[in-house]
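Thread: TonB-dependent receptor-like protein, structure

OP (GT): Posting the sequence first so everyone is looking at the same thing. Length is 985 residues per the record. Can we get the C-alpha cells written out before standup tomorrow? I want them in the notebook alongside the other entries.
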Amino acid sequence: MTKEWRLPRTLLLTATILAAGALAVPASAQDVPAAAPAATQDQATVAPAAEAPATDDTIVVTGSRIRRPDLESASPVAVVDSQQIQSQGIVNTQDLLQKLPQVGIPGLSRTNSNFATSGNGIATINLRNLGDSRTLVLVNGRRFVPGVAGTSVVDVNNIPADFVERIEVVTGGASAIYGSDAIAGVVNYVTKTDMQGIIARAQYGLTSRGDNPNYTASITGGTKFGEDDRGSIIVNGTYSKDLGLLSRKRGISAEDCSAAGCGPQSYSSYSAQGRFQFRNGANESTNAGGYASNLFSFNPDNSVVAGGGTGFNRNSVRRISTPVERYLAAGAAQYKFSDSVTAFLEGTYAKTKSSSQLEALALDSQLDTGVGYGIDNPYIPASIRQQITARNSDGIASNDVTSIDFRRRQNEVFSRSNTNDRDTFRIAGGFRGDISPKWRYEVSGVYGQLKDSTSSQDIDITKYANALDAVTDATGTIVCRDATARAAGCAPINLFGYNTASAAASNYVQSDVPRSVEIKNTQFVANASLNGSLLTLPYGDVQVALGAEYRREKSSENWDALTNAGLNSGNQTPDTVGKFNVKELFGEIDIPILKNVPFVNSLSLQGAARYSDYSTIGTVFSWNAGGEYSPVQGLRFRGNYAIANRAPNINELFSSASETFPPGIQDPCDGVTAASAGTYANACRQIPAIAAAVRNGGTFQYTLADIQSINGFDGGNRNLQEEKGKTLTLGAVIAPDQVRGFSLTVDYFDIKLSNAIGIIPRSTSIQQCLLTSEPQFCNNVIRYDNTGYIKTVNAQNINISDTKTRGIDVNARYGRALGLTTDDRLDVSVLYTHTLRYQTQSDPAAPVNSGVGNLEYGAAFRDKVNATASYRTGPFSVNWTTTYLSPMLDTPRDEFAETSEGLSPEIAAHNEIASRFYHDVQVRARVGEESKQMEMFFGVTNLFDRKPPKLEDNVFYGSITGTTTAADVYDPIGRRFYVGAQLRF
C-alpha cells in the first residue's frame, strides 16, 4: 500500500501536484491532482525503492541523497509514473521518454539502428541532445550495466515497463551526486517493491495498414511474509515482440531516392544482374582509371543488353524499424530484522533478440576483391566474347580488353543482415537501517553483465578471388583454375546475370565462420553512505550525506579472425579490450538559514562534492551549490550551479585503429579546373597531381567509385582527459492556495560542455588542410601522389569539441473534480521546453553551428510540448496526449553550400520541415473491486496518421538509410492501434 503522508495542507497540495501522482491523495483533498501523466516533481512523494520511508516522513528524491522533510529539491525533477505508462500502452519506456521536451534524439532506437554493425534495436536515452554517454541511467538510484560495448550507455530494453513504479528525470550536471556520465542529467527508474496479489496484462498492437504487429504479456506478483509483515517479495515476468517494419511498406520509403528524385533513376548501379565493364590494363594511367568505354548488363531473361542495365532498388529489402523480441524477469525482496537492519535484494535478467535487414552486399571487383574476370573465363557470354576478340584483333592497343570488371549485388550469394542475441543480468543487494533517530546508513553492492552476440553471413575474399578465376578442364567442366583451391573445394562462380551463382559456388565463397562480434560488459559497484542531522540551527537541522563508492568496469569486443584481418566484405576491425576502476568520496549538505520569519517562509542552501580517482585519468573533482527561497507559501525560487565531469569510456580510450569507409566524403577540389576561382580552387591547384590534371583544359573529377574507395581509420586515445560541464538552473515554483489543483514551474537552464571527446570531422580535416596546411588537419588526410584523389581520411578521439545549450522549461498542471458525476475528475499536464541556444563546435578551427531548428547540427527543437489530459468517471477513463514539434530545417549534405540552391525545386522544398502535432488517445474500463479487478483498454497512437517529412537519401542530413526521413525524430510508422486487458487478483 502507498502511504498517505500527513503534511501541512500547502505542502501536501504542492507535493501531490508536482509528483505526477505517485502519492495517494487524502479523500478530503479532492481538488488535489492524483496520479497523472509526466509531471514535474519539484516535491517528490515516494521514496526510491532502495530507501524505506522513515518515521518522520522524510524521503530521498533523485538528484539528492539527503532526506528532506520539506519535500523540496533545488533542481527540477520530471516524473513519469506507472499510470502514465499504462495510459499510453507503453511497452518500451524509450517510446514514452522520447515525448518529453528534455529528451533529445536517441543514439540507438528501433528506427535508427537497422544499419548499425551491432546493437540493432537497442534503446537509449539522450537528455538535452548532449549524447547518450552523458546521460546517466540508474535503477533505484544505482548504476545499471551498460548495453553498448565500451560505453556507459544503458539499453532500457532491459527494464520491464510493468515493473516500473515511476521514472524520475533530473536534467543538468549531477556528477557530484552520482559520479561520471551525468553531465546532461540522470534518468532514474524506480521499480516496484511492495505488492500484495497478482497482476496479469496482455496487449496486442497493429498499424492501420495491417503491419508492424507487436505482442506483450506480463505478470507481476507480490506478497508479504514473516511476523508483522517484516518481509516482502515481488517478481515480474514479461514477454514482448515487435516484428518491425519493411521500408517498402510505406510509400515515402518504398523506393531509393537521391537528388534526382525517387525511382529507377536513383536505383543503385550495383544491380542484382551485375554491371560489367571492359578494362584495358595497359592504359590505366591515361584511360580514366583503366576502363574502356563499353558497359554491358542483362535483361530479366539474362540476355545481354548494352549499358548499365536496370539498377537495384535497395529500399525494397531495407527496414524502417528493426524487430525486437524480449524475455524479461525482475524481482525485489526485503526483510526487516530490526529498525537498524533491513536486508534488500533486487535482480534483473533480460534476453533480447533483434536483427537488421539490409540489401545484399554491393561487390566491386576492383574495390573489394581486387580481381575481375579474365577474358578467358568460360562464363563470359558468347556475344561479349565476340566483342573482346574483335577488339583485341583490330591492331589498336588502346582498344584491347585485358579483363572484365564488375559491380554486382550478391543477392543469391549471401546475406549480410545481422542477427543479435543479448543476455543481460544484474543483481543488487545490501543492508540499510537506523543508527539513531537522526542517522541512517546503507551499504550496497551491484554486479551486472552483458553478453551480446552479433553475427551475419560473409565472404572470404581469398576464396572469392579463386572462384572468379575459372577455366574449362579436359572434360569440358568449368572449374577453378588453381589446383590447390580445387582440392580445398573451390567452386567457380558465375555472376553474369540474374541468379547465376550456383549454390555450390555461393557456399564456397562464404567464410567458414560468420562475420561476428562477441561483446561482454561487466560492472561491479560497492557503495556505503550515511545521512542524517549533523547539528541543529535555530531554524532547523543541518542535513548531510556522506559516502564512498568503488566501481570497476570492463568491456571486450571480440571480432572474428577474417574481420580482424580485413579479409571479408567488411572493414578491417581490431578487437577492443579495456577496463578501469574508480574510487570516490562524496558528500552533500542542506543548511536551513531562515524559516517562518517576516518575508521569509523558508530559506536554505545546498551543496555537494565528489572526489574521484580513476585508474585511467587520475583525479577529478565535481561539485554543485544551490539554494531555495520561499517568501510566502505557494511561491518558491530555486537555483543551482554545478561543475560536472565525464571520464572517457573504454571505447574512447582503448579501441584500436579500425578501418571504415566513411559515407559522404566530399573533396572541395572535385570539379576544379584551371579557370576555377576561389580559395579552395587556388589551394587545390597547389597539389602537383591536381595541377597536372587541370592543365590543357582538364578537370579534376571524381567518379562514384573513387569516392566510395576512400577509407579511414578510427581509434581510441589513452591520453584523453575528462569532459567538463557547467550547469546553471534558475527557477520558480508556483502553487497558490487560491487556485486549488494548479501548479506552475518555470526553470531557466544553461549548460556548457567543454573539452568534450570527439574527432575532427573528416570534412573539417579536408577543408582546413587545404585552407591552413596545419598538421593537426593535414596529418589526417592522405592523397594519392599520382592522381591527387583522396585515399584516406583518418580520425582519432581527442578532447576538442564544445557544446552550449540554454532554454526555458515550463511545466503546468491543473486537476479537479468537474462535478458532472459523483466521482469524476479531470487532470491536465503541460510540459514545454523553449530552446534559446544549442551550439556545437567540433574543434577550435571549425565554425560554430547552431542546432536550434536544424537537423544537421543537433536537431534541437525551438519549441517542444507534451500535453496530457485525463478524465475519469466511475469505471471509465480516457487519456489524450499531444506532442508538438516546432518547424525544423534539414540542410542538404553539401558541406560547401549554405542554402538549397542547386537542388531541384521539389527537393529544395523538403528542406523546410513544417511543425507537427502528434495525438494519442486511450480509453479504459474497469470491472470489479480493486483487489479483484479486470481492466480493458483500447488505444490509438498517432491518431490522425501524421506523416513524416520526406527527406531523400544521400541528399538530406536527417534522412536515415531506408526510411527517407528522420525516423528517430518523426514518426515513420503512422497510425497504430492496440488493445489489451489487465487482470488483478
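GT: Both are above now. Quick notes for whoever picks this up: The CA atoms of residues 224 and 420 lie 39 Å apart. The longest strand covers residues 515-537.
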